[in-house]
Records
---
Amino acid sequence: MLSDLSEVIQNSQRPLTASQVKGYMMMLLKGVALCHENSIMHRDLKPANLLISSTGQLKITDFGLARLFSNEGDRLYSHQVATRWYRAPELLYGAQKYDEGVDLWAVGCIFGELLNNSPLFPGENDIEQLCCVLRVLGTPNHKVWPEITELPDYNKITFKENPPIPLEEIMPDTSPQAVDLLKKFLVYPSKQRISARQALLHPYFFTDPLPAHHSELPIPQCGGKHSRQRMQPPYEFTVDRPLHESLVDPSLIQRHARSCL
């Protein structure tokens, strides 16, 4: 039985402990680091795309929007990617040239949600989403984000000058090390965001309480509304069964197939 991280957060009877948050974050960062080291940009990291096994292990799933990226950064991509609450500010400003930093922003949003037990930037539309970000991090300008004037939608909308709100005030019960790491993800310039590999070496993971082992993390509850159950016999396949007995009847998956066009 598989569940996802959003269900774990929502169904927890009490907020996750600091040790549990560290455990989930370590697994997430290891997965993201592996993707980025192989030039894969996920582009839709969010709690619902992080599956949790019955033993507490976290796996990144749904690579439908994933793309290869290069250090040259001259390839054009769609800015209509990533679920809104986890969408990087450059995407909200219509950027078509971007890099793995969009994933790192999403990781920061997921981290904040784990710490706060609720989404950091829950906008109901793209404009409100940008407002949510600016309300916390402050109105960006050329000094803090030199590339902002080059973004396609920069001149299409203006916002009132707003100073940043210290993250310590938004999450007063969070440890200084956790807030420091969160700040390193949630910065406007993509190139300044901490990489997944660097984040794994942050002091946050080496101070008490230490990260929980996956066996100590919350186990998804059976029968959840959105839980993803394994296929039941006779549609459960193992390597011990003859190949001809393990072939999938196309009619079973036809309704789940989607066009690649």
---
Amino acid sequence: MKTEVTIQGLSASLNPARTARKIIGFVPTMGNLHEGHLNLVREARKLCDVVVVSIFVNPIQFGPNEDFENYPRTLEQDSHLLADAGCDIIFAPSVEQMYGSQPRLTNISVGKITDDLCGKSRPGHFDGVAVVVTKLFNIVQPNYAFFGQKDYQQLAVIRQLVRDLNLPLEVIGVPITRAADGLALSSRNGYLSTEERQLAPSIYQSLKNAELELQQGQALSQVLDHVKSQLTQAGLVVEYVEARTPELQAVHEFNQSLVLFVAAKLGNTRLIDNLQVNYSH
């Protein structure tokens, strides 16, 4: 496995694969990897001849009071995990390598689907994601790119971006990887205290309860309120509990398959999760 830190180095490493028309798979990450990331790499390994993983903490997707400076950077540990999971090339560029020394004058905004859910409390976040992902797609030029469904809104934004800009690749969403107690794996789980970590699975439990209540015929608005009260009672500060269609359109009753979304804070740590609920009447 190679680690490349420059765009030129990565291109040189990928040239033989391109010449041989091999299938290139790409997993973009910010490092501090966990089993969820490694599952993306394993999925890429199944479909692709060459698997590239980027490790880049992207400054332009962090808000002014967010954890860019403190975000864990664990390249050596990540490299060992990636070698075992079947990665061929790590691309670990510096901020200057990605953004240069001149000011960036081009922005990329995906409208509408970035206005609410996480977009509401994190203005500019999805623009930062859209810019860095477009840059990475142009640098790596993969056939397939793999993203986790835990960041469901991000996945929808990237699918929209690829479709709108005719980017020549296919985006593949990979189901959420969960701990044994149901907590969605996330790099931010590392910020939780022991006590908070014991409370965190209540998010998934409340989503599973909501699925059951919907399938028993309870009204959607009532079910969403119930999730909020369950989480508040468990000690979380709820940012939102929402239902959307799989394409992130608003939905007011359970008359089609939908996705339930939660964002809540436990201490200083912001956690998100979602659950797809199938409609089968």
